[in-house]
Structure formats: structure tokens, C-alpha cells
Amino acid sequence: MTTTGTPTTRDTRPGLIQRAVGLLRRHAGELFRFAGVGGTAYIVDVGLFNVLYLGLDWSYWYAKILSAVLAMTLAFFGNRHWTWRERRGTAAAHRQYALYFFFNGIGLLIALACIWANSGLASVWPQYFDNALAVNLAANVFGVGLGSVFRFFAYRTWVFNSPKLAGS
What we know:
This protein is mainly α and 168 residues long. Helices cover 76% and strands 0% of the residues. The longest helix is centred in the middle third of the chain and has 32 residues, at 93-124.
């Protein structure tokens, strides 16, 4: 009761933290598998990017595009056959790959936007942003990180969806 004698009403809607915990609990298995597949693809992406960019002196644009395309192809098979294996349904692999490649293209654009932002910052503060570490952070930490959040929801919603699981 309040000091005026009227009963207080308690908001029974779950807060943001409770909702986030509930989502994590409900989707923990697929998040774990997605992280495993993604971690493997990430190692391939970063490793190949650095071999091409630092070892073979490729442009970071071309190095990132090639490393991302190869990593996303590897991740497709891992996600199709492990992360969302129960969601494969009757969808043809080529249809799923086309959607997967489309959403990965958006994820790649996110990574390239981070590289572009780094190159813009390098023109203002070259002592901080015009080096291999800054390019790697932009491409492989910020770019891949932001792109991964986008890809998880895109894959789950549109690529590996299942009519019987559409409400989950």
C-alpha cells in the first residue's frame, strides 16, 4: 500500500534481463551449435584473411571477400547439418544456400563497412588506424561480430526455418 492508502500495482511484465535470460535458455542448444560452427568458420576466415593480406600482400578488400566466401560455405554445411539439422525439412539445399549466401552477403557488407570506417579513421588518425592490427580489428572483430548477430537471426528466421517450428 502507498501512503495514501491505495494498493500499489506491480508490473508483472518481465523485464529486459528476464526476457533475455528466457531467450537464452530456450535457444541455448542452437546458440551453442551456432557458436561452434561459427567459431570454426571464424578461424578459417581470420586465418585465410591474414595469409592473403599479410602473407601474400593482397588488398584487404579482396582478402576479406575471399576469406569470407570460403568461411561462409564451410559454415553453411555445418549449420545445415548440425546447428539446425531438425529444421532442414524438405527445403532443397540449393534454395537454402542461395538464401544463406544472400544473408552472408549482407553480413560481409557489414564487415566491409567496418573496414571502410577504419580506412576513413586512418585518414584522420593514421598513427592509430593505418596498421594491420586496426584493419584486423575492424574486419574480424567488429565486422564479424556485428555480422554474426545479424546472421544468427536471419538464418534462424529465413534460411533454416521450419513450418512446424515457426512459432519457436
